[in-house]
Q: What sequence folds into this?
């Protein structure tokens, strides 16, 4: 991958977790698809600080993954069923925000970026992995899945500068988000699924 037509010099991917209990990661790619920075955050304040002070922001396209909102649920079956539960007319009370399947964490931060004239898009990391031909062959985010994903990014997409030790799942996902930001800046064909706080959530139409 290499940027050809975009005016931006950097492409930022953020793999966003749904709470401070889990790590979020950011990756910055330059126009030659080289990794400039990989960093990890836990708290909203740290994410805010990065976007307010990073020297790369003003010449970037930013792509942020959408985290699923599981924090209000208890029990494994509820967490897994939330994304698939069919809701009918009989569903009168939204107890524990059952219908809120997407977390709006950090939305104010991203709206501020957009207000500054920075291009911001959102994505579903599972759809991106599938479209790039690096979909999980093992349970997502397990050690073997992360190892498989890191090797795939090295071999298939040329990220040879990645360290030999295994990167966290969020860092690998941030690289994928940054790849999508670069492609979006170069007008790859995408489809808008919906919007979160006026920021589009896009899918990648090309499948490798």
A:
């Amino acid at each position: 991958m290499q940027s050809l037509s975009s005016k931006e010099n950097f492409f930022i991917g953020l793999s966003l977790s749904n709470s401070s209990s889990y790590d979020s990661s950011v990756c910055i790619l330059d126009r030659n698809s080289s990794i400039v920075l990989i960093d990890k955050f836990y708290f909203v304040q740290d994410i805010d600080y990065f976007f307010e002070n990073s020297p790369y922001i003003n010449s970037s396209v930013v792509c942020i993954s959408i985290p699923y909102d599981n924090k209000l649920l208890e029990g494994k079956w509820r967490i897994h069923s939330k994304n698939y539960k069919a809701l009918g007319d009989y569903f009168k009370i939204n107890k524990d925000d059952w219908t809120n399947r997407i977390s709006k964490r950090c939305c104010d931060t991203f709206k501020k970026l957009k207000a500054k004239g920075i291009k911001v898009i959102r994505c579903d990391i599972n759809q991106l992995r599938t479209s790039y031909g690096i979909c999980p062959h093992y349970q997502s985010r397990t050690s073997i899945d992360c190892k498989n994903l890191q090797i795939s990014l090295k071999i298939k997409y040329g990220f040879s500068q990645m360290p030999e030790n295994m990167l966290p799942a969020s860092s690998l996902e941030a690289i994928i988000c940054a790849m999508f930001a670069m492609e979006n800046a170069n007008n790859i064909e995408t489809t808008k699924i919906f919007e979160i706080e006026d920021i589009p959530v896009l899918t990648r139409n090309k499948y490798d």
Summary: The beta strands are 10-15, 24-30, 35-41, 60-65, 119-123, 190-196, 199-204. Residues 14 and 56 are 14 Å apart (CA to CA). The radius of gyration is 17 Å. The chain has a mean pLDDT of 87.
